[in-house]
Amino acid sequence: MILNEIRKEILKQKNPLQAINLQRFFKTGKGEYGEGDIFYGIKVPEQRIIAKQFSDLSLDDLKILITSKVHEERLIAVFILVEQFKKGDDKKQKIIYDFYLKNRKGINNWDLVDLSAPKIVGAYLIDKEKDLLYKFAHSKDLWKKRISIISTQAFIREHFFEDTLDISEILLNDKHDLIHKAVGWMLREIGNLDLEIEEEFLKKYYKTMPRTMLRYAIEKFPEKKRKSYLEGKI
Q: Angle at the Cα of 105 (from 80 to 60), degrees rounded to 5?
């Protein structure tokens, strides 16, 4: 059975010491955003290699992996889904997109979102209605909200910024720093392509947006301009 084979490969790479560090890094303690997540301590490049070896894994087997309690099994499933989406025709891409959303509860940490949402959700919706992203942005679910903004990275790369800016506005007063970081990052991505548009947004909101969001958004600004934003002197 192929699922048994991939799990054997995963177990071969286990690193208990690294697992302890990852569980701390991904906030798996009681009351933290990754509470209860289990890590084997496998580095991402090694996970990518395993995903490549089993890139034809069936959706039935992927469903088992993506609902696993083990973080690396879920991330490997995500890598395989991304690869299958990239290589698929329109019909296959729709299947992968629907599967991803149906099993979205397994996409429950920031790395899982960031490494998949733009390449599956964003890529699929790029020429379609974006209502789902706005629905997710208004959700109380942390990972839905992160998917909503991070998915727009696919649109930014095509020089289409409107949805990123609109969703950033929705998430402007969110309380979670993982959303502050995500929004700031996407604003910075816009600035990499069109600084004027990023600054137009920032000048409107920089005095009221969360500090972390602002810091992420202006990270690559010249030092003098960066200080001006932080000191409220723009």
A: 45
